[in-house]
């Protein structure tokens, strides 16, 4: 479903701020894989997701989604393959619009039928049913403005919107990091459910090692722009945080450092 072949990216080349962010990243995901991505500060986790989404072109290497070579496609053209959810709950939704308008925009993405057509009863019923699966009581608030909702409620709606068109790949970049622990756990539970219900292939960056172990069927660890650990199946199920720290130190020769991880 996803194949990343030796991608490299250097920011600000030839300047005093030159930074090799991706130094030969390789990764293959099968359809239905849910991989969690961990690593220290500046390891290249977000940069990898941005490379897949085509935020800027990579310097070398290839990216395939569902067998299509998307390496040279613009961010706009790649959007049809992808669902994305970011850390900031403010980014995924239109604050001044209602819940149902936000969902209609997501559902009609790529179609000529804009919002001016209004939302039909049939569509409203579908949105209500989808919202009910979140178990947050939002199915009774279809006409509420999204700006009035809590961060967790907004992230849950953003997840629904990101998956409504069944993307080939769902990219979650620390999407629970700005939430309190209880809400973060609820949004992670919803993420698991949406990924399972829609049979999505997903990548989730997290600074929380426990979450990285508990969620998904695969785990990768990045360091200095490379994938240094790639763990799947039974081996992943048996992992502990201590194992991960130990493995990190063994492969990198350094102590694991992620400011956010230390705080969680
Ligand atoms: N647009 C950019 N311009 C310049 N440098 C960048 C840019 N994006 C990322 N970098 C640099 O590339 C490196 C990798 O950044 P990235 O955001 O991928 O790290 P990360 O693994 O997500 O780390 P963290 O856990 O600290 O968020 C860092 O040194 C970062 O400063």
Task: Outline the structure in words.
There is one protein chain. This protein is an alpha/beta fold and 264 residues long. The chain has a single domain, classed as Rossmann fold (3-Layer(aba) Sandwich). 35% of the residues lie in helices and 23% in strands. The protein has ten helices and ten strands. The strands form two sheets. A six-stranded mixed β-sheet has the order 6-7-8-3-9-10, with helices on both faces. Helix 6 (181-197) links the parallel strand 7 and strand 8 (202-205). Helix 3 (99-107) runs parallel beside helix 5. The protein starts with a strand and ends with a helix. 39% of the residues are buried. It binds adenosine-5'-triphosphate (ATP). Adenosine-5'-triphosphate (ATP) binds at residues 11-12, 19, 21, 39, 41-47, 207, 258. Adenosine-5'-triphosphate binds at residues 11-12, 19, 21, 39, 41-47, 207, 258. It is a peripheral membrane protein. Pfam families: ABC_tran. This is ABC-type uncharacterized transport system, ATPase component. It is found in: Cell membrane.
Major beta sheet summary: 6 strands, mixed
Can you count the beta strands?
10
**What is the CATH class name?**
Alpha Beta
CATH homologous superfamily grouping: P-loop containing nucleotide triphosphate hydrolases
Q: What ions, cofactors and ligands are bound?
A: adenosine-5'-triphosphate
> Looking across the biggest beta sheet, what order are the strands in?
6-7-8-3-9-10
Strand content: 15-25%
Elements, N to C (H/E): EEEHEEHEHHHEHEHEEHHH
The share of residues in helices is: 25-40%
Distance between the termini: 32 Å
Q: Based on helices, strands and strand pairing, what is the structural class?
A: alpha/beta
Q: Which value, in Å, is the CA radius of gyration?
A: 19 Å
Uncertain runs: none
Q: What is the total number of structural domains?
A: 1
Instruction: Please name the CATH topology.
Output: Rossmann fold
Number of helices: 10
The overall pLDDT, averaged over residues, is 91
CATH architecture: 3-Layer(aba) Sandwich
InterPro entries: AAA+_ATPase, ABC_transporter-like_ATP-bd, ABC_transporter-like_CS, ABC_transporter_ATP-bind, P-loop_NTPase
Subcellular location: Cell membrane
Keywords: ATP-binding, Cell membrane, Membrane, Nucleotide-binding, Transport
Pfam family, one: ABC_tran
